[in-house]
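Cross-check.
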Amino acid sequence: MEIKILELRADRARIVLKGEGHTFLNLLTDELLNDPSVDVARYLMEFQFSDPELLITTDGKKSPIDVLREACGRISGHCDELLKDLKV
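Predicted model, tokenized:
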């Protein structure tokens, strides 16, 4: 996955996730919002085939990049659990 950081501050980040669609971004924003230090997690996709822009703002206790890494780790863990449960 190719990412482009448009803005990065201590409590705010705007990131373009090239080639991703609604499926992954919906999952990611939902998981980001499970973190109590996240104030806003949303994405904008102007056109059907444009690259989405993810916006994350935090309360300042964690950086937006840290909460993004943690959310991706939780998603990966959920997928690992599912794969383990599917083995018969």
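Strands lie at 2-8, 12-18, 38-44, 53-58. The chain has one domain: 2-86. Passed to J.P. for a second look.
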